[in-house]
């Protein structure tokens, strides 16, 4: 129901209009009545009508002035002018104000008023439809990446085909044919430290998606999707045609895509594609197969094409036992800042992991934990985006290169204990002498004869962290040594360091070291 406001200083005229037609039949209702332009302006703000029928010849503020003000407030409002005047210049001004109609009081009939209102209602519906479409398109545009990820999630559910097609249409994805081919692509993270920050990964996936969309032509209907698991997916929808080798066409497109990505972004990608499948119901299964095949190719150098089927692979899960000695050598080389020793140890780790066929997911997770310990020992905050990239690596060679680059970054960035100034050494000595106590900022400030607020500000300015974090880090360094070098229980170590509850100690340890005390030991 649309709302109408009647405006006229002639009271009988308003009563006449109110009874002239059946307003409800036209999907309108009279929401407000005003006898002056000033009062109409006030009521307009209060009732927000869609259509205003107003007299032109009113004192103080005439109908034309009123209409101009109303359109400033609500540009889509429909205006019907009602007047005794028939001079052309009034009509011309009404037209300039985009009035829907210009009715003469002495000649008005029910039919004329109904016709004018129908036109206004039709215009209102048209405007609302346009606004709704614009709003919908804006929402799709602003949230396109999120909606596409949701669409990809739906794609992995085998029993949601009708919903999938409906969601696709809203994103402009229409699969009109019965056959599909899928390709999955992964970033080669080994080149990241040279050209990009670790946190640039989402931007790169977005750029790849744009490059792929720009490459599309009328011959191939390809949908590009990106995923939070750091891969992108190309889906070809086609109708079999004897005159076209679809596998060769898709392979050619993917090869050109790799070249374009390297040309624009200077980064390599691994791309593997499926054989043709029929029916949307098989997409989820084929996608899982591609992911599994990609995981099984973790130790290979295959970067393009159809992956060979190797069946269910049995991985070795003895990560710590297999690599502990080699990793200890790597850590020693790291502590001694020996680049050659680091490179040699990493190469041996790479070869042994490949030879033993260690489980990729567990291996990358363990490597991430070990790198976090190195970051912690150099008082560096863990680079979460690096650890995400490391655990998403699709190839072991790239993961090893990524680790090598990060270890070198830690060596360059992390300060050694000898570089601490005298005041920090004094603070360290105090913490060391009160390890079993709960050391507060106030305690430390009093020891240094400083105002607590001043000490808090200056400490954070100098160290980049608050005092509480510093104390926890200092104690966790000692905890690491005790866990490795002594046979004391975790409870006893926690007690010695001033943590009365083991659960709290474990929580603090994992926060600053990246692994639990049990896993570290």
From TrEMBL:
Highest taxon above the source species: Bacteria
Entry keyword Phosphoprotein: yes
Response regulatory domain span: 3-120
Regions crossing the membrane: none
PROSITE patterns: HTH_ARAC_FAMILY_2 (PS01124), RESPONSE_REGULATORY (PS50110)
CDD domains: REC_YesN-like (cd17536)
Matches recorded under SMART domains: HTH_ARAC, REC
InterPro entries given in the database record: CheY-like_superfamily, Homeodomain-like_sf, HTH_AraC, Sig_transdc_resp-reg_receiver, Tscrpt_reg_AraC-type_HTH
Pfam families in alphabetical order: HTH_18 (PF12833), Response_reg (PF00072)
Residue ranges constituting the HTH araC/xylS-type domain according to the UniProt record: 425-521
SUPFAM superfamilies in the cross-refs: CheY-like, Homeodomain-like
UniProt entry keywords in alphabetical sequence: DNA-binding, Phosphoprotein, Transcription, Transcription regulation
Modified residue annotations for 4-aspartylphosphate: 55
PANTHER family for this protein: ARAC-FAMILY TRANSCRIPTIONAL REGULATOR, REGULATORY PROTEIN POCR
Full protein name: Response regulator
The species this protein was found in: Paenibacillus radicis (ex Xue et al. 2023)
């Amino acid at each position: 129901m649309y709302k109408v406001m009647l405006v006229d200083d002639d009271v009988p005229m308003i009563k006449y209009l109110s009874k002239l037609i059946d307003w409800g039949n036209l999907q309108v209702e009279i929401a407000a009545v005003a006898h002056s332009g000033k009062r109409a302006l006030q009521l307009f703000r209060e009732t927000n009508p869609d259509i205003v029928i107003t007299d032109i010849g009113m004192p103080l503020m005439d109908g034309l002035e009123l209409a101009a003000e109303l359109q400033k407030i609500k540009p889509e409002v429909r205006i019907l002018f009602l007047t005794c005047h028939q001079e052309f210049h009034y009509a011309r001004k009404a037209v300039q104000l985009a009035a829907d109609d210009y009715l003469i009081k002495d000649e008005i009939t029910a039919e004329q008023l109904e016709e004018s209102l129908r036109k206004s209602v039709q215009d209102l519906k048209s405007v609302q439809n346009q606004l709704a479409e614009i709003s919908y398109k804006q929402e799709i545009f602003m949230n396109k990446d999120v909606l596409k990820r949701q669409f990809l999630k739906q794609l992995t559910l085998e029993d949601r085909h009708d919903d999938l097609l409906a969601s696709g249409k809203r994103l402009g994805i229409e699969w009109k044919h019965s056959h599909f081919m899928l390709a999955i692509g992964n970033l080669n993270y080994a080149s990241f430290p040279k050209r990009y920050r670790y946190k640039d990964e989402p931007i790169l996936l977005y750029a790849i998606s744009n490059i792929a969309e720009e490459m599309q032509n009328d011959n191939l209907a390809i949908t590009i999707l990106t995923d939070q698991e750091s891969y992108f997916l190309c889906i070809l929808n086609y109708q079999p045609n004897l005159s076209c080798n679809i596998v060769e066409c898709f392979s050619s497109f993917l090869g050109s895509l790799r070249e374009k990505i390297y040309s624009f972004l200077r980064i390599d990608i691994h791309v593997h594609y499926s054989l043709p499948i029929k029916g949307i119901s098989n997409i989820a299964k084929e996608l899982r197969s591609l992911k599994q095949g990609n995981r099984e190719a973790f130790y290979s150098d295959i970067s393009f094409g159809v992956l060979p089927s190797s069946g269910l692979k049995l991985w070795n899960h003895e990560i710590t036992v297999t690599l502990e000695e080699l990793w200890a050598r790597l850590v020693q080389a790291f502590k001694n800042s020996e680049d050659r020793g680091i490179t040699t140890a990493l190469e041996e780790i790479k070869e042994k992991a490949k030879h033993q066929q260690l489980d990729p997911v567990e291996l990358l997770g363990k490597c991430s934990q070990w790198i976090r310990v190195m970051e912690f020992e150099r008082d560096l905050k863990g680079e979460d985006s690096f650890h995400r990239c490391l655990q998403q690596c699709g190839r072991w060679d790239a993961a090893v290169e990524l680790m090598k680059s990060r270890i070198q970054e830690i060596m360059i960035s992390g300060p050694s204990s000898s570089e601490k100034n005298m005041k920090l050494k004094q603070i360290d000595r105090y913490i060391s002498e009160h390890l079993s106590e709960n050391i507060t900022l106030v305690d430390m400030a009093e020891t240094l004869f400083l105002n607590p607020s001043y000490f808090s500000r200056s400490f954070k300015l100098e160290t980049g962290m608050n005092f509480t974090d510093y104390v926890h880090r200092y104690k966790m360094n000692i905890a690491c040594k005790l866990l490795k070098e002594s046979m004391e229980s975790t409870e006893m170590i926690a007690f010695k360091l001033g943590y009365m509850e083991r659960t709290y100690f474990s929580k603090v340890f994992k926060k600053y070291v990246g692994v639990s005390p049990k896993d570290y030991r």
